[in-house]
Amino acid sequence: MTLRDLINRLLRRQQASGETAKQRLQLVLAHDRSDLNPELLQRMRQEILEVVSRYVEIDVDEGEVSLETEDRVTALVANLPIKRARSLPLIPGLGDSDQSTADPLRRAS
Amino acid sequence: MNATSARTILICSGKGGVGKTTLTANLGIALARQGARTAVIDADFGLRNLDLLLGLENRIVYTAQEVLAGSCRLEQALVKHKQEPNLALLPAGNPRMLDWLKPEDMKTIAAQVGQQSDYVLIDCPAGVEGGFRNAAAAAEEAIVVTTPELSAVRDADRVIGLLNSQGIQPIQLVLNRVRPKMMANQEMLTVQDVTDILALPLLGLVLEDEQVIVSTNRGEPLTLQGHGAGSPAARAYINVARRLCGEDVPLVDPSKERSGLRAKLGRLISKNLF
After folding, report:
1. CATH number for position B161
2. Residue B37 carries which DSSP code?
3. Contact B183 A18 (CB under 8 A)
4. How many structural domains comprise chain A?
5. Rounded-to-integer distance, Cα B93 and Cα B90, Å
């Protein structure tokens, strides 16, 4: 540890590099273990935000969808601050007279 | 003794240079000194080094290649260690073997070696490709070696995933090149960090020790000297061997292993005050 590192640590300007290593490792392993490519993860994140925002108004900038890993199990963790619930959920097809056109499952069949 | 009674253990890491071959050599000697008939197989055909670490490089006549080809008997290829006759090395063949060697070939070799051993240690090549798959095919259990560094732990994690998918069990961890001072200063991943992340039982903890380099220079594994005369790494390797045999040996606490006046003073104070 150099003197500058020590001063930075004492002034809490910089966290210990061991802690940084741990955090970086946990993040990279969550991705390695899930075997999801970044593009797919980005698309999934986008769609999750879309679905959730139909029901509640969320703070998209503060929201976070990420992979976390513990005991060799990887979890998808969404942390989405809710501003307020929507009074009328914006669900496509809900309230429509013709539900068959709005139901994606039925449309696919 | 028949083939099924030998314990066939893969020693692997993913990343190169973390201490697989050093562990294989030292563990081999330590197990042999405990009276177990031990064979070490150099499965690193591309970059073989186990012969060098054991000081047996000048005594190789035949290798795994001739055994597989049927041009010599296994006994002719096995190199017995002079000071520790319970230990034998099956040297790696020519790197060109990599072109045709299959997982079944490694299984055949390990089974043959296992017929006259209590322990068969397979020194695995770095990487997760063909060489690793060949070596892993022959093993029943595994020891993953890693150091408290990002890249080593990441690669170890990848290897553990592959070992799990092959049904290799148990998988145990040896944490190598631990620097107590850096850990105490939080400038390194801690033992707890690594075991939490990899979720493996800790079989051993080896402190960074310059004597490892000296012993490599001489081709005399540290464990040859025995427990008493041993350096910290020698003691650690012997303890790995004892734990492997089922003995309950407590792990060293890196924070108590710090040398130097300040650490000694700290210990003295904490002992007398608390």
Report:
1. 3.40.50.300
2. -
3. yes
4. 1
5. 9
* pLDDT score, position B141: 97
Domain coverage including residue A39: 3-86
Does the interface predicted TM-score (ipTM) exceed 0.85? no
Q: Containing domain of residue B85, as a range? A: 3-273
What six digits make up the tokens of A79? 């942390």
8 Å CB contact of B154 and A18: no
Query: In this structure, is residue A93 part of a structural domain?
Result: no
Residue for token pair 């562990």: B23
The reply to whether A57 falls in a domain is yes
Backbone angles phi, psi at B4, to 5 degrees: -75, -15
Give domain status of residue A101, yes or no: no
**How many domains, in total, are found in chain B?**
1
- Pairwise CA distance, residues B41 & B88, whole Å: 9
Q: What does each of the 109 residues of chain A score in pLDDT, given as a tens digit?
A: 677 777 777 777 778 899 999 999 998 898 888 877 888 888 888 899 888 888 888 887 888 888 887 777 788 888 888 888 877 666 665 554 444 444 444 434 3
For residue B198, the distance in angstroms to the closest alpha carbon of chain A comes to 7
Report residues of chain B scoring pLDDT below 70.
1-4, 226-229, 258-274
Cβ of A25 within 8 Å of Cβ of B197? The answer is: yes
CA A49 to chain B, closest CA, distance in angstroms equals: 29
Min distance B200 CA to chain A CA atoms (Å): 9
C-beta separation of A83 from A57 below 8 A: yes
Whether residues A29 and B157 touch (CB distance < 8 A) is answered with: yes
Give domain status of residue A107, yes or no.
no
